[in-house]
Design goal:
With 343 residues, the protein is an alpha+beta fold. Helix content is 36%, strand content 21%. It has helices spanning 6-18, 24-31, 42-47, 72-75, 118-128, 162-171, 175-183, 189-202, 224-235, 238-244, 312-326, 329-342, and strands spanning 37-39, 52-54, 89-96, 102-106, 112-113, 136-138, 159-161, 221-222, 248-253, 256-261, 273-282, 286-295, 298-307. It has a 5-stranded antiparallel β-sheet with strand order 4-3-13-12-11, with helices on both faces. A two-stranded antiparallel sheet has the order 1-2. A two-stranded antiparallel ribbon has the order 5-8. The radius of gyration is 26 Å and the shape is globular.
């Protein structure tokens, strides 16, 4: 099992600082504005010459290119792992939901940040608590993201039902909605996070840890193997299936009507039969995706972690689907053998 050590976290912080703005001395130097100077020479005045004007041009300062922050998977060298499907995700796992047969694996035991895949456990804890879905909750300042500074259209003071907040959290990955669900849980936010971890252990998710309900913290971590277990458990809940695969939803907020859409474009694709899904992204985690979907007549659970590129997680899901639709049982077995050999 691959774990990300604290050393990588330290390297990540140093790298982000070095990739940021220029050093203070350079910043101050480039931020000064050169003014046009005029000088009169007394000897020139005596000789009747016109006043000389000396001007200086602003120095041309090249823009500093800020490199994207490396993910934990990149720092651990997981992207060096080759696979027969040439996936862009450094971690992948495809499992037959009914037989539990592993059809594809790639670094499935690596423990990495999982970003908003966290919200799938948030939803599971909420639905299993049997809290009233019509109870109106209020977004407060405590729900505002101070971890990543992410934006939200749910302003402080917004009132929505628990069911509406759960819908937005699962479908469009609304962070304030997810945080409010945890904050208003009986016993408060810490009690909710404790229950998230208790539920993970009860499912046998030994590589998983949660510290908050949104996924904005990189300390929310899991493995593909554990996440496949979570997807299987969440799929048994009809509410989670319905809300996570909803293409879009409108909510009334005061005098405004806000339109929210699913973060996974595949739910609108008629060629896909998706029963449950969740996306996630923070720089430390890369692009992430988990799904339950029917492919080639089989119910599958797919997990893709630490994919690089905005659409790469979707492309990886498409690669796996095309492979399974066209592959024979023998070729699937051969591919899995090749993956094991390269791991």
């Amino acid at each position: 099992m691959i774990r990300i050590s604290p050393l990588f976290t330290f390297v990540l912080v140093v790298a982000s600082l070095l990739a940021g703005p220029a050093a203070a001395g350079e910043k101050n130097k480039s931020s000064g504005v050169s003014k046009t100077k005029s000088a009169k020479s007394s000897s020139a005045a005596k000789s009747g010459r016109q006043t000389a004007r000396v001007s200086s041009k602003r120095p041309v300062v090249a823009a500093t290119k800020v490199e994207p922050k490396a993910s934990y998977g990149q720092l651990a060298g997981l992207h060096d792992t080759q696979d027969p499907l040439d996936l862009k995700s450094s971690v992948a796992l495809v499992v037959d939901q009914d037989t539990h047969e592993v059809l594809f694996r790639k670094n499935e035991n690596a423990v990495l940040p999982i970003a908003s895949l966290t919200k799938l456990m948030t939803g599971l804890v909420i639905t299993e608590a049997r809290l009233p879905m019509d109870e109106v909750l209020v977004i407060t300042q405590d729900d505002v993201d101070t971890e990543k500074g992410s934006r939200s259209r749910l302003n402080v003071g917004t009132q929505l039902s628990r069911g509406e907040l759960l819908h937005l959290a699962l479908m469009s990955s609304e962070n304030r909605a997810a945080h409010a669900l945890g904050r208003t849980y009986p016993g408060g936010l810490q009690a909710f996070v404790n229950q998230m971890n208790i539920r993970a252990l009860s499912l046998g998710m030994r590589d998983t840890r949660y510290v908050e309900p949104t996924g904005l913290s990189s300390r929310n971590q899991s493995s593909a193997k554990d996440l496949a277990t979570l997807v299987a458990a969440a799929y048994t809940d009809p509410t989670l299936r319905e809300l996570s695969t909803s293409p879009g939803h409108e909510v009334e907020v005061g005098r405004r009507t806000l339109q929210y859409n699913n973060t996974n474009r595949l739910v609108k694709n008629p060629t896909w039969d998706i029963g449950l899904q969740k996306t996630g992204y923070i720089s430390e985690a890369g692009q992430c995706l988990v799904m339950q979907a029917k492919v080639a007549g089989r119910k599958l659970i797919m997990v893709f972690l630490d994919s690089q590129g905005k659409l790469s997680r979707i492309a990886d899901a498409e690669r796996v689907r095309r492979w399974l639709e066209n592959a024979s049982p023998t070729s699937i077995s051969q591919t899995l053998t090749a993956v094991k050999a390269s791991s």
